[in-house]
Structure formats: C-alpha cells, structure tokens
Design goal:
Helix content: 40-55%
Shape: elongated
Number of helices: 15
CATH topology of the largest domain: Rossmann fold
Strand content: 15-25%
Largest sheet: 6 strands, mixed
Number of domains: 4
Radius of gyration: 27 Å
CATH superfamily of the largest domain: P-loop containing nucleotide triphosphate hydrolases
Number of strands: 16
C-alpha cells in the first residue's frame, strides 16, 4: 500500500497543497474569521490552501468528525487538486485522524498540529526548542499510527501506515523516554529562570500579553529603545525577552515580551511553556495589547482574556492597550472606541502615537502600589541615605537642626530590604 506522508517542517523544501475544513456546531457562531485565521496558520506553516470547505453540524461524527457527504466531497477535491493534506480547524482524535486518512489517502492535519509546526519553525533558544519538542512528542504519542516520528532516523511524518506493531512499540518507548528527558531538562531551565526572576524582584515587572501578531514586540521596542525581532507573521516571538524600560521613566521598570496567544491553543503547548508563561503570572502589571484594526478584535480580546484566566493571571492589574490606531479610517469609530473603553490607552507603535499616555498609565499603576513611609535620621546616620535610595523613592527631605526626615515611597517587595538597611536605628513610621 502506498504511504502518504507530510514531511517534518524542517524537511520542507516546497509548499504543500492543502484543503481547509471548518465546522460550525449549531449555535456556536460564525466560521468566517476562524477560517481566515486557519488560512494564515497554514501559510505560515508552509502550506498552500487550494480550497475551503465548511459544514454546519448538530453533532460531531465520532468516526470522521464531519458527515459522510462532506467526507465524499473532500475525497473528490483531494483527487482534483492533488492535495497533500486536509487541514481541520478543530482538534481531531487519533481515531478520527486515522479514519479520515484511510478514506482520503492523504495527510490529515488538525489545528493544534499546525500551531506546533509553526512553533517548531520559530523556536530559537534552547528553552523554546525544548518546550516545543516536548509538546510535539506529547501530542504525537497517542497518534503513532498516523504521524509517528522515528527519532533516530527522522523519517516518517503524518500519514505513516503499514508500520509493524513492533516498530510502533519501539517508537512509543523512544518517545516516552524523550518526554522524560525533556521534562527533566525543562525543570533545570525553570530553576534557572526562577533564579533570574529573584534577581529582578526589586524592579517593577510589566508583561506584554495579547493575541498573536498584534504588535507586542514593536511596542516593546518603542518603550525600551531596543531592537527585538519584529515580523508581520503569526508567532514571530516565542521566547520571553526582558528589557529595562529607560525612556522617560522615573522608576526601575522591567518589560517582558511573551508568546502570542491564539484560539484553540494546544493544551500540551501551554503546559510546556510553563517557564515562559511564568513571566505573565509573576508580573506586577499586564499590558494587554489588542490590534484595534483587526475586524475580529473583540473575539481576539475575549480569547486572550479567557486564556489568561486559565493561566491563573486573572487577578493581576491590566492596562488595555489598543494598537494600530493609524489604520483606523474614521475618526468617529476611534471616538466610539474611546467612549466604550474609557480606561484603555490608544497607540500606534509604528507612528509613535500615544506613547506618553501609555507611559503615564504604567507610572500610575506603579505609584498606586507604593507604600508611604517616613524615616527620621540623625545626621551621623546620613550615610544610610545612599542605600535607602536602592529600595525606596525619596519624595521629600525635611532638614532639622539635628536630623533629617525623609518621606519615602516603597515598593511592597522592597519593604524587608529597606528594614534591613535601617536596621532599627531610626524611627520608621508608616503613614
């Protein structure tokens, strides 16, 4: 029997033709934007969409996900277009994938695997590569009959059939061993990350979050004056980058760029990216960036908020940042949005619009968390002032005959360190 394969993303030298399939379960809403996004995902993963198919279903077919009539329609289309793959905008079970593959005689790819392929292509650092590889193996393990990867020879791929049971068992053991190895490696990386975070605790930490390709990296460059990679494509940023904000900020603030969010993000990928996502969970403030020019920005905003809740970040303070206002065609529309979201900040990273408003919003959030303290020092203790400045802001200095009184603002995390500096010598009174 002929074997149908889709090569690994690292092996692709030509674009593969693919048919896209979207399913709307009764009452679930419009398919249009989701299929547009699937088209973008497919192209980013080096597929060429040659046809789109949709179906409305009351219930999902447990064997093939879609109905028999639509399956027959796809079989004809696969032959007509000589398609290499059929890409579903849903998560398929291993059995559904295997059944569809046997019927259509081509590779069957679902949305999670497309996202994993893109992540594999874009991973650059040791951490990102390890996280993505772990997620791919965890996703592939129950699907060995259709897309097993022989790790020692890098053969196989989606659509592999006629593999002996012994070989499958061997591959399953190899994958499990590698999952164990990668988990251990990620634990070591996670410990390194924790050490780095402890060293940054004295600074106010802000994380950029939001849907993929909304302009987070461009915004980071605007606020920090750095040259973080910026590309107009999905998931251009996978690695968490931390930079110090230097432009017109009176306080020590660190800004972290994080991986973009997307609807139906694979669960294994979220779990694997624990270390990176900790930059979100451990932040003092989130800047939730939204592409206001996107026709489906409200749904993207909803999806991102839902994913942030799943990550345990729902209690963190958030500043909503609407980006790309330069692409808004009508002033009335922008005015309506400002009335609808009065607490939000509206910016254009490309043209530098609204940056002062955003800086002021970050400063307000910072200052809202500062604890007021008053410290009285005798003049022989003035040498402590230099160390006090490391952990507190001196708002006012009042010099008397034998002492100086300092009005301070202290970041809560620095309170214990400030007390160590003072060491019980002066009298410290909280307002």
């Amino acid at each position: 029997m002929k074997t149908h394969q889709i090569p690994q993303s690292t092996q692709k030298t030509t674009t593969l033709k693919a048919l896209l399939v979207g399913v709307e379960i009764t009452g679930s809403g419009s398919l249009g934007h989701s299929l547009d996004e699937l088209d973008g995902l497919a192209r980013t993963a080096h597929y060429q969409p040659v046809g789109t198919f949709t179906q409305r279903l009351a219930t999902i077919n447990s064997k093939t996900f879609i109905g028999k009539g639509k399956v027959d329609e796809l079989v004809t289309a696969v032959k007509h277009h000589q398609a290499d793959a059929v890409i579903f905008d849903e998560t398929l079970t291993p059995a559904q994938t295997r059944n569809l593959e046997n019927i259509m005689k081509c590779g069957i790819v679902d949305r999670p695997w497309i996202i994993l392929e893109i992540f594999k292509d874009h991973a650059r650092t040791r951490e990102a590569k390890t996280q993505v590889e772990l997620a791919r193996l965890q996703y592939a393990l129950p699907r060995l009959t259709k897309m097993w990867t022989h790790l020692s020879r890098q053969r196989g791929g989606i659509g592999m059939r006629d593999v002996g049971e012994t070989q499958i068992q061997l591959d399953r053991r190899i994958i499990r061993d590698n999952i164990t190895r990668l988990n251990k490696k990620l634990k070591r990386i996670h410990r390194e990350r924790q050490t780095q975070r402890k060293a940054r605790q004295s600074a106010y930490q802000v994380s950029l979050v939001g849907y993929t390709n909304v302009g987070k990296s461009t915004l980071m460059n605007c606020l920090t004056g750095t040259d973080t990679l910026v590309e107009d494509k999905l998931f251009a940023t996978l690695d968490s980058t931390v930079r110090k904000v230097k432009k017109n900020f009176p306080y020590p603030i660190l800004l972290a760029d994080t991986v973009g969010l997307i609807d139906k993000l694979p669960h294994d990928l979220v779990a694997s990216f624990k270390s990176t996502l900790d930059e979100i969970r451990n932040a003092n403030l989130l800047l939730h960036v939204v592409d206001i020019s996107h026709p489906n920005f409200k749904e993207q905003l909803r999806v991102a908020e839902e994913l942030l809740r799943e990550m345990g970040a729902e209690e963190l303070p958030v500043v909503l940042v609407f980006n790309k206002i330069d692409r808004m065609t009508e002033d009335d529309t922008l005015g309506h949005m400002k009335r609808q979201y009065p607490e939000a900040v509206f910016v254009s990273c490309q043209q530098g619009l609204g940056m002062d408003d955003l800086r002021e919003a970050i400063v307000r959030e910072y200052e809202a968390n500062l604890l007021p303290y008053r410290v009285e020092l005798k003049y022989p203790q003035n040498n402590l002032i230099q160390n006090i400045r490391k952990y507190a802001l001196i708002i006012k200095e009042d010099y008397q005959k034998n002492s100086v009184t300092l009005d301070l603002r202290v970041w809560p995390q620095n309170k214990s360190k400030l007390m160590e500096v003072l060491n019980g010598h002066p009298q410290t009174v909280a307002w």
